[in-house]
Specification:
alpha+beta, Aminopeptidase
């Protein structure tokens, strides 16, 4: 893979989204839930090679202070080639554009297991640290 062959856009179909998720063993999401998730994203970035999605990331949040980077996905065939970094750098650039002079926003994410060093190289801090507790998750199913 050559980064020059990658195009970035902000649109993905539900089938493409679930295909990308499945490629890294994330659960697939039912169409109605996936549509809501994609439609309510503050920012979505899709990396395509020859028109096919090979990576992505989304930002969700309140649009004022709290932002959460999620669905950071790079197809296994494209991992360890700089694409994840390329995607996150573009996402961080967009996030920086949302901050007014003299203001601060909080950007959170949850790393996949053992991927923490990747995010630390991009300026994220593993929790807990200093006066910040650990992150927590809960899934609700019916």
């Amino acid at each position: 893979m050559n980064i020059e062959n990658i195009t970035l856009n902000h649109s993905i179909t539900i089938d493409e989204y679930n295909d990308l998720r499945a490629s890294v063993d994330f659960i697939t999401i039912r169409e109605n839930r996936a549509r809501i998730a994609l439609d309510h994203s503050l920012y979505t970035l899709i990396a395509r090679e020859n028109g096919r999605p090979v990576g992505m990331a989304r930002v969700v949040g309140d649009g004022g202070y709290v932002y959460f980077i999620c669905d950071v996905i790079v197809r296994p065939s494209h991992q360890s080639q700089g694409l994840g970094r390329y995607i996150i750098e573009h996402v961080l650039s967009w996030l920086e554009s949302q901050v007014d002079e003299g203001e601060t926003i909080m950007v959170n994410l949850m790393s996949a297991l053992n991927k923490e060093p990747f995010y630390e190289k991009l300026g994220f801090h593993k929790r807990p640290f200093s006066d910040h507790g650990s992150g927590m998750s809960r899934w609700i199913s019916r």
